[in-house]
């Protein structure tokens, strides 16, 4: 039988004081119980939360004793691909949280060296000073030259591109186009497309004469689509996706070879680059599990979907 406490009022002053004190105590206990209940509910909610593996997204914060997320940072070019791979991986391993952050290939290498990230994303060849990291190529891409779809120029040589980017040519008629100024778009320091471009043409960044520097592939494609006299270099795979999606741009034939995924696959296209994941040491645990997944047949269709060539093709 459930017991019940009944407080009966008394009429003298001492009784009234005692009654008020008991009411205050009961109220404090009720407040404490409500606060504890809210904390318990919050803990349950956090326990079931999860991230979606994309840059800028909210991810589950590990509670006391919970596993820390797998941190991935680096190349803007492959961040969308790695984000999609992370989502598929997390569907198989829901206990493993993943955070993916874009910021350029150099940042990816710096972050794994400094312990800020477990895995770095790099979309170019490693230079001599970067050979200390472990590298795992997952795909291949090219650096393509794009112009507006209405530009009559269809093809450029290496010498012509070099002259356009260093100020030697300033008008499209100098390369077979119309009488219009050449609007040169380049990339800021730290971008792998810039590093690959400079390496291929054997140029220093200081030698470039660009009208504007644009950080990522998507805004570069958008800028060329909006400027009929522009030229820029971007991820070949992303440019092909943009063209299929209706962007009014064209990939130029370069040194007699069409800029296409097929010519990246067979190695005929000149400006090639690997897309890779890097770690400070040989990967272990969740990092190894994720890299193995990215190298497996389970990742192949996503690599192609994002316009790249699986590395082992």
Automatic annotation (TrEMBL):
Instruction: Fetch the Pfam families from UniProt.
Output: PBP_like_2
Keyword Signal, does the record have it?
Answer: yes
Its source organism is: Massilia glaciei
Q: Which InterPro entries match?
A: PBP_domain, Phosphate_ABC_transporter
Question: Which key words tag this protein in UniProt?
Answer: Signal
Keyword Signal: yes or no? yes
Q: Where is the PBP domain?
A: 61-297
Region annotation (Disordered) ranges: 50-71
Q: What is this protein called?
A: Phosphate ABC transporter substrate-binding protein
